[in-house]
């Protein structure tokens, strides 16, 4: 005969206990991540994980401790993943700041159609290219102008450059790969 400590809690009872403590769990996670939306995402994922594993809980008392441990691990995993992404964005922003401007003779021969192609991009990308590449505004200063972080500004200019590169390839074809030093587009 099974004792109370080795008896498996029926999954429905464990799930009911977890759902009954939803608000406490949300407060617990929100205090650690500083954002209600992120806390809700983490908690929702933890509930899915918890419900899948509810039958593994051995007694009614351990369900709470087990779920809090699951939440702590989920918060740590989230912080690790966002931390590494944040470091990568900071490194990219520093690289952009340290990049050297092309020599004046190269700037003078760049195809004039590039400006027209840039204007066809998404407005935020066109603005980022104009302010950073043409006006020479530093990425962090552009971010401050736009009310975004330097990291977000770095991502925006990266995406803008990529979009412009794709636009040039569509418009100019093979000459885009080799440079527009002999432009025949008439602009």
Description:
The protein is mainly alpha-helical. It has two domains: 11-96, RNA polymerase sigma factor, region 2, helix turn helix motif (Rna Polymerase Sigma Factor, Chain: A, Orthogonal Bundle), CATH 1.10.1740; 101-178, Orthogonal Bundle (Arc Repressor Mutant, subunit A), CATH 1.10.10. Helix content is 73%, strand content 0%. It is built from ten helices and no strands. α1 (11-20) packs antiparallel against α3 (36-53), α2 (22-33) packs across α3 (36-53) and α2 runs parallel beside α4. The radius of gyration is 27 Å and the shape is elongated. Residues 1-6 have low confidence and may be disordered.
Entry keywords:
single chain; 2 domains; mainly alpha; Rna Polymerase Sigma Factor, Chain: A; 187 residues; 73% helix; Arc Repressor Mutant, subunit A; disordered N terminus
Task: Kindly summarize this structure in a few lines.
The chain has 187 residues and is mainly alpha-helical.
Secondary-structure blueprint of this entry?
Layout: H1 11-20, H2 22-33, H3 36-53, H4 62-98, H5 104-109, H6 113-119, H7 123-134, H8 139-146, H9 150-172, H10 175-178
Helix pairs in contact: 1-3, 2-3, 2-4, 3-4, 4-9, 7-9, 8-9
CATH class of the largest domain: Mainly Alpha
Count the DSSP helices: 10
Total domains, how many?
2
CATH architecture call of the largest domain: Orthogonal Bundle
Largest sheet: none
Q: Kindly report the average pLDDT value.
A: 78
CATH superfamily of the largest domain: RNA polymerase sigma factor, region 2, helix turn helix motif
Overall morphology: elongated
H/E element sequence: HHHHHHHHHH
| Residue fraction in strands | under 5%
Q: Work out the helicity level.
A: over 70%
